[in-house]
Amino acid sequence: MTQGAGQGPEVRTATLRDFRVPAYVHDVPANVQEPGHDPAPPAPAVPPHAEPDPAHQEPSLSQPSYAEPAPQDPAFDQPDGYTPTQRDLPVINRGDTVQVQIDTEPAPRPTDGLGPLHVVGDVHGYLDELIAALYEQGLIDAEGSWSAGTARLWFLGDFTDRGPDGIGVIDLVMRLSAEAAAAGGYCKALMGNHELLLLGAKRFGDTPVNSGAGTATFQAAWLLNGGQKSDMDRLQDVHLQWMSRLDAIELEDDHLLMHSDTTAYLDYGDSIEAVNDTVRETLTRNDADECWDLFRKFTKRFAFRDESGPEAVRELLDAYGGVRVVHGHSPIPYLLGEVGTEDTADGSEDSRPQIEGPHVYAGGLAIAMDGGVTMAGKLLVQQLPMDS
To answer: What is the CA 282 to chain-centroid distance, rounded?
Structure first.
């Protein structure tokens, strides 16, 4: 099927440099106490994993020889056809500290009937921030166990890369899935482009693929876009199997849930079942070029942002159902154009992205859920439907 009939070209953010892990991840505990408040509960226990090597330093992610030169103009005016052989999205180089606060009394949740629906934006390895956000919404207790009864929880993809503990995030989501099911609710997850990237890096490594802009490899693209050696070292068969079976798109309460803000899903089927089957079959065939093409299409972004955005959203809703699209992938600061330059990225409060919640746009037809946790923004967990 053709993508985005009548739609303007999707574009990608011009590149300044790759995302970096904010300093607060290593220096500030997730449970921060405000003066005059009782101490927050301890961070929940998560599945055991290897302790980080204090001597380890992130590798220098220099531009591979096949990569295009990084554009210097940060304006969003790049043509369609993005192939991720260079760093994706610029970084706000701030070094400011974000304090994650947890209410000591989570909101009560129903214990029977059809529970409320929540969605989680891109996590990217920020396990402590995820735990804090889930606890604040009453979805887990102080020990990190499912406490939401029959509630429904959907993760919109991108569990790993850029942040410090992607495997810990996957382990937590897998455990909560079992606990939620036992309580009569459920916790499910969608396939993000970084799941496809990690699967490709593990399966194909440095095997050359035809990127559309020269020769590329999954391994180089994974490193260039925030791949963490600690995640790869701890990656097990159970994680690979879980990721490879994730759905790409789903419909819940008239909300069309997907990871990427692109119409590329239409290339893989004219129904939700067809899209999910095609994506899983593509991964099963284990063809490097075919998997790269899938990954490349799921990296496209900003299809719903400009004047043609409502039309693009309606094309998806007409094909798959629902009244609103809910997606991650593109950080809200970039959708809004509220990102600073290196001249203003001084670590001050004014230079930090001010993200309070999801971004509703495209004439009210789309909800963006990536709060930009990788750039000292906010990891978003939102109950649906939203009022606005």
So the answer is: 21
- pLDDT tens-place values along the chain, 388 residues long: 433 333 344 443 332 223 333 333 333 333 433 333 344 444 444 444 444 444 444 333 333 333 333 333 333 344 344 456 666 665 443 333 333 343 444 444 444 478 999 999 999 999 999 999 999 999 999 999 999 999 999 999 999 999 999 999 999 999 999 999 999 999 999 999 999 999 999 999 999 998 877 779 999 999 999 999 999 999 999 999 999 999 999 999 999 999 999 999 999 999 999 999 999 999 999 999 999 999 999 999 999 999 999 999 999 999 999 999 999 999 999 999 876 433 344 445 555 668 989 999 999 999 999 999 998 899 999 999 997 6
In DSSP terms, which residues pair with 35 in a beta bridge?
Answer: none
Nearest-angstrom CA–CA distance, 14 and 73: 7
Q: Which helix (H) or strand (E) holds 194?
A: helix 193-204
Structure tokens at 218: 């999954």
End-to-end CA gap in the chain: 32
Which of 283, 288, 242, 327 is CA-nearest to residue 47? 242
CB 109 within 8 A of CB 149: yes
- Residue 100 sits at φ, ψ, to 5 deg, of -95, 120
Strand ranges (E), the chain: 117-120, 152-155, 186-189, 209-210, 215-216, 249-252, 255-258, 324-327, 359-361, 366-368, 381-384
